Amino acid sequence: MDNRPPPPQSLLDSIPQTGSLHRREPAPVHLWNPPLSGELDMRITRDGTWYYQGGPIERKALAQLFSGILRLDEDGRYYLVTPVERWAIQVDDAPFVATNLNIEGEGQLQRLRFTTSLGDEFEAGTEHPITLKCDPDSGEPAPYILVRANLQALIHRNVFYQLVDLAVAHEQNGHSALGVWSNGQFFPMDGGAEAR
């Protein structure tokens, strides 16, 4: 008699429900192109909370694991992707939230290091630009930073206030812009110009 458990039928079945999960580097999801497996009852809310079947995912390590196989495709939809599966999920705004900011140096030599609620760390610069969009309904500014590929993090309001406190005037494209420096790049905070 074979007492081995049956092989997993989906990516959710393959994830241990108890015990420890170890954080890994994001998977090379850009290399995988499996067929669509369906819609997964999973949602990431604007505050960065992951939900599965209506309830929050309590284990941070599990949300980290899922975030490592997350991809935003050209159709504007988010998917959890493995070499053999691609599940559509719902994302209310951005899949990550930048909740912490560390500042090193000052002026044009300043480095702004962000940490997301899931523990991703990166410095604003060429590979991780800061952008500012306006909410079409309220007109309120909403700042974002690129985490990886085309996945953005909404910059938490408290962190945005820190950026506003750091903002300086800089002549850009013939106009004075208010913004912040990181890794030698200037990021406008008024939404009116591109970083340089």
TrEMBL record:
Positions of region (Disordered): 1-28
Pfam families named among the record's database cross-references: DUF1285_C, DUF1285_N
Biased composition (Polar residues): 11-20
UniProt domain DUF1285: residue ranges: 27-94, 95-189
InterPro entries for the chain: DUF1285, DUF1285_beta_roll_sf, DUF1285_C, DUF1285_N
Source superkingdom: Bacteria
Protein name (database record): DUF1285 domain-containing protein
Lineage: Bacteria, Pseudomonadati, Pseudomonadota, Gammaproteobacteria, Pseudomonadales
